[in-house]
Amino acid sequence: MTQPAADPPPHSPQASQVVMTELVLPADTNNYGHIFGGRVLALADKCAAMAAMRHCRLPVVTASFDRVDFLRPVMAGMIVILSGVVNATFRTSLEVGVTVVAEDPVTGQRAQACRALVTLGAIDASGRSVPVPPLEPQTDEERQRAERARQRREIRLRQRS
Ligand SMILES: CC(C)(COP(=O)(O)OP(=O)(O)OC[C@H]1O[C@@H](n2cnc3c(N)ncnc32)[C@H](O)[C@@H]1OP(=O)(O)O)[C@@H](O)C(=O)NCCC(=O)NCCS
Whose CA is nearest to atom 17 of ligand 1? Predict the structure, then answer.
């Protein structure tokens, strides 16, 4: 495997954005026919990890899920579209925001079903934490997202200690 650059350049949030589309099958659902929360979390984790790896070009591990909101049930037969975007980078970790939208495949109607904030850490081949490339927000919205993520990190670290 090629080694990452020693001093990697910053990347925009758009450069690592991930969009994942899945069909909700009966095996993904509970006895009410709604998708399991745990299944949504697994998909959100995968989506966040891909965005983080694209940004860092390094292996990453999930350090925390610190905010998950399930906004509406999603039934078997629906399509779910997950979007993962790097909100902010720190020293060896980064925050990825994941949104999950449910789409009715027949009507095409879409509604947000879940959102989650995931912090992942970059590691080397020995599992040691390594610095992540900086994020370079391009738009006002991206700059605001980064600022809000930095504020959340302060709270997260305070709560952790
Ligand atoms: C995440 C992990 C790499 C952190 O390693 P560590 O030895 O605690 O190292 P550090 O304390 O230096 O933390 C490394 C980075 O992770 C961040 N971090 C660690 N725990 C965190 C938490 N609970 N929430 C948010 N960030 C966290 C730290 O702030 C630090 O980031 P920074 O350098 O940008 O400030 C380590 O705890 C680990 O491997 N956990 C298991 C990961 C895993 O298996 N995930 C899958 C779950 S099934």
Answer: 93
Q: Is 121 in the pocket of ligand 1 (CB under 6 A)?
A: yes
CA of 152 to the centre of ligand 1 (A): 15
pLDDT digits (tens, 9 = 90+) for 39-81: 999 999 999 999 999 999 999 999 999 889 999 999 999 999 9
State if residue 62 touches ligand 1 by the CB under 6 angstroms criterion: yes
| Closest ligand 1 atom to Cα of 89 | 34
Contacts of 148 (CB under 8 A, 6+ apart): 87
Burial of 118 (0-12, 13-18, 19+ CB in 10 A): buried
Q: What is the pLDDT of residue 66?
A: 85
Instruction: Give the model's pLDDT for residue 4.
Output: 61
14-160 maps to CATH 3.30.1300.30: no
Backbone angles phi, psi at 91, to 5 degrees: -85, -65
Quick check: helix, strand or coil at residue 140? helix
